[in-house]
Amino acid sequence: MRLKEKDLGKMMTLWGKPLISAVFLFVMLVFGYQQILAPQARTETGLDFAALSRHVSVIAKKPHPIGSAANRKTRDYIVSYFESLGLETEVQKTTVVYRHPTEPNRNTIIGNVENIIARLPGRSGVDLEGPGDLVLMGHYDSRPLTPGAGDDASGTAAIMETARIMSSGPAPAHDVIFLINDGEEMGLLGAQGFFRQHPLAKTAGLVLNFEARGSYGASMMFETSSNNAWLIDELIESTPGLVASSLSYEIYRKMPNDTDMSISKGKGIPGLNFAFTAGLFDYHAMTDNVKNLDANSLAHQANNVLATAQHFANLEEWQSAGGDRTYFNLWQGTVVSYSQGLAVALGLVVLLMGAGLFVTAMRAGTIARGSVGTGFLGILVIFLTVYSLFENLIVYMHRADAGIRRLTSLGDWPFMAFFILTLGLCLWFGYRFRHGLGKLDIFITVLVLVLLILLAGNTAISAFVIPVIVGLIMIAIRTRVSLPDVWTAAMCSWWLLTAVVLYLAPNASYLFVLPLVSVLLGITMQRRLRGVTGGRIQFVTVLVFSFIPLLLLPPIYIMGYLALGLALPQVLMIFCALSVLLIWPLLRSIGFSADGKGALLLLGAGVVMTLVVMLGRGFDTRHPRAEELFYAIDVDQQQGFWVSSDARPGSWLGDFMGDQAKAANMTRILPSYDQDVLIRETVLPQYQATTLTVKSDRLMNGMREMRLHLEPTGSEYINLLFATDAGISAAAINGLPIAVPDAQKSGSTGLEINAWWRWRLYGIQEDGADIVLTMESGEPVPVRIVEVDYEMPKGGPRRPDDSMPRPYTWSDSTVIFQTVILE
Ligand SMILES: [Zn+2]
Description:
It is a single chain. By secondary structure, the chain is of the alpha+beta class. Helices cover 45% and strands 20% of the residues. The protein has a 15-stranded mixed sheet that branches. Strands 15-16-21-18-19 form a five-stranded antiparallel sheet, with no helix packed on it. The protein has a two-stranded antiparallel ribbon with strand order 8-9. Helix 18 (535-564) runs antiparallel to helix 19. The termini are far apart. It binds zinc ion (ZN). The site of zinc ion has 5 residues, from helix 4. Zinc ion binds at residues 139, 151-152, 184, 211.
């Protein structure tokens, strides 16, 4: 059916442009939102979804951190499954010593890992050059306070299911290694053990890693190795329902996050990394359980594992080089890709086109130099207002009781509310710019911002500077600002942003280049059409050329919000505001009819929605409040006490701690851990503490050599802290040398944080560990032992259903600490 001009005319008189524009915008936003969700499970692949969720429910039955009995059970389950498939299966037991590159003087992590390695031999007779094994990688350990259904039982289960299908089919061209790592959560320990120590690592030619950082969303291919052209082409060809973006790869490269693939990539092995990332509330929390894991996300992850594994394992020729590619989804399952060279060329052409249009408009007198400056001041008013608004909302939520957790628990809803508010604000400003700013506009804007700052209790001077600047700019441009100038300035800003991104991260530039070219083409078309046809065709042009920005931008912003949590909504909202300004002609037709009613309506809706997401959410069983409570035993003082940093009067925790609770600081337990807590003393229960005994103490070549034995009592996690001025010059554990940090060698006490050299021992064996220390002096050496048993003594309080242990704390554990003097 073709719409005739006459029909179109009827439609418009019937509904009006505002309604059509609004519906179009709404449909595009809903469509964009759907792009971040996992697609409906594809059933024709042979994956057994019941088996998948069975694996997840066994692995994620309860928390199973490295070194725990639950983790050993998980290991046995996976090993026996691989064995039942007839795969050659081994457990690599090894010790990994790891010092974080950014804080080498602080922590040394020592982990006894147990990696699971199963091997499916490829067709014999296939002659492969170079390392040709395909590695499918996940990890089976969880953090201590989460069952880890998403992270990473989902990846593990998907690999197990793929192993079943592949082992029952014809042998692939390449050997396939199913590598399920241990100790990922405590510093990528398992991956380090495999890729640095295992002989099979040398045969690894390609690594596919499967992870999760939440409980729902599409499984996205978010990271590749460099020179990814060949990988990307093959990936697009092989994987239906693919979600991937070279933008996320560019961003991920610049973020401090790590997965096991960082280790294999460090070894120069190419790879692809998949994860679903929506549902940050559940990440590393007790709620990352089987019930809350989205079945579609699990299925999508499994489909990705199966499709990529079968494809790459059967591809006889593997290539490596070929440069990088730009790649992105138009929508789910449809990925566009082109070379970085083409991306740069396209970017330059579009930048030139923009510059050309600008110069032509200047010559024609459509744009005056001064008016562009005024336009820039206009968008500055919008940006500063948006920034100040969201900064103060977040400051307010930080001060409110568990405010940020409550916002996170709402998933993507706060983003929707914030976006509508931003949209409404942009429209309102646009409307006011068009009619000339009145004194009342300036007064209201400044007043609202100042009130928000006061309400948020934001004491930063800079917070108050913003409303002052906004007010002054508004006064300055009051009579001169015009809407076309603001739009021109927005286009110029987008143009500048495109240039910067093109220079810094060419494969991320598509997100700026394509919307820009679309809008520029729209402007050119409109100029041509002016005077030739009626306004209707121009209106259709507006819809058509808003399509690309609305197709590409919303999913990225929602993803960005979900991935960042609530770290930087104010910055994200400035991007949203700029994007809104980019498609100004569309929004103008929504917002400016009938004296700006549309603008006010959206602004009002945004305010209401924002209030609802900020104030509306309480905690419930699906979204429990995260609270810390652990039991500590001071061996030196012979005292036992409950510890919490979350106890508040009126809460169950507050009631439990009672009136006798005293203020204390965590430095008492772990030097350098400066945090205020409440403690409540109790009768010391029976306990057993780890011992550190001197086996021998002698002079060797003028140095003092101490041989020690550490005898654990079953704690999963032991910290040994040596005073920095102990003058240790060499150290070893179970024969494995441990690099000594510079601070220890120079004997400087330096900052408090560096005053102790901390060894973090995970998965220590039952028969303990032998430690050798070589020192300069014969002085007694104080050692602090802080051990964590991931269980609380009996007699603790029962948590209500709407409470869970706070992630990243020692909650629900028993911490035994003591000082041992080695003399
Ligand atoms: Zn993980």
